[in-house]
């Protein structure tokens, strides 16, 4: 799961929403300073309510995307040229549906009233070079847990992969993220694969 980007439209909406309203004119015999303070307080309360509504909508959208991913595997099947060799790479990212991750409700503040149970994800990697199988493995979060502290690894799952070819390094890069679902707590991971199927893991904290 990735952190949500705020679009230009939303940014503009927030910009105008944050503009304080002009205080009402004071009636005869009324303390205009008191009215101004009351108006500003009311404006702040409205802004806080708008922000809370926006955050709730974002959280709910993230929840729907996560639930959909349980039944929507991502597959990549592509042929590439690496060091003048033609290689074929097949990736499949999928949900294990193991209900193995229980995230405390404290991670979600006001959005949930109980712990959230979700699943681990995995990514199968199959690499062929000139028709010969060089790599055939399945990567799970367990592959990376040794790099993280116990609190993070207890709740983090593997995100969907991005693929890049790096000719100058003579390898493929499979970029992934370990993330606590529905949060912005992430650690970036790069899996380097050469044409012979050798793997190197780089963790970017």
UniProtKB/TrEMBL annotation:
<keyword id="KW-0732">Signal</keyword>
<protein>
    <recommendedName>
        <fullName>Lipoprotein</fullName>
    </recommendedName>
</protein>
<feature type="signal peptide">
    <location>
        <begin position="1"/>
        <end position="27"/>
    </location>
</feature>
């Amino acid at each position: 799961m990735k952190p949500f980007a705020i679009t230009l439209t939303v940014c503009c909406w927030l910009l105008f929403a944050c503009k304080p309203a002009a205080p009402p004119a004071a009636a005869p015999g009324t303390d205009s300073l008191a009215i101004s303070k009351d108006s500003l307080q009311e404006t702040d309360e409205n802004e806080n309510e708008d922000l809370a509504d926006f955050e709730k909508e974002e959280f709910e959208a993230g929840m729907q995307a996560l639930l959909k991913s349980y039944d929507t595997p991502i597959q990549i099947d592509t042929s590439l040229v690496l060091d003048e060799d033609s290689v074929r790479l097949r990736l499949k990212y999928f949900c294990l549906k193991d209900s193995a991750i229980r995230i405390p409700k404290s991670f979600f503040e006001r959005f949930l009233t109980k712990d959230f149970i979700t699943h681990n994800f995995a990514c199968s990697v199959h690499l062929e070079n000139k028709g010969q199988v060089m790599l055939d493995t399945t990567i799970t979060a367990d592959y990376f847990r040794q790099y993280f502290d116990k609190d993070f690894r207890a709740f983090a799952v593997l995100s969907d992969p991005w693929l890049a070819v790096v000719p100058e390094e003579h390898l493929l890069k499979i970029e992934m993220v370990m993330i606590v679902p529905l949060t912005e707590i992430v650690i970036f991971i790069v899996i380097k694969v050469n044409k012979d199927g050798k793997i190197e893991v780089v963790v970017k904290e």
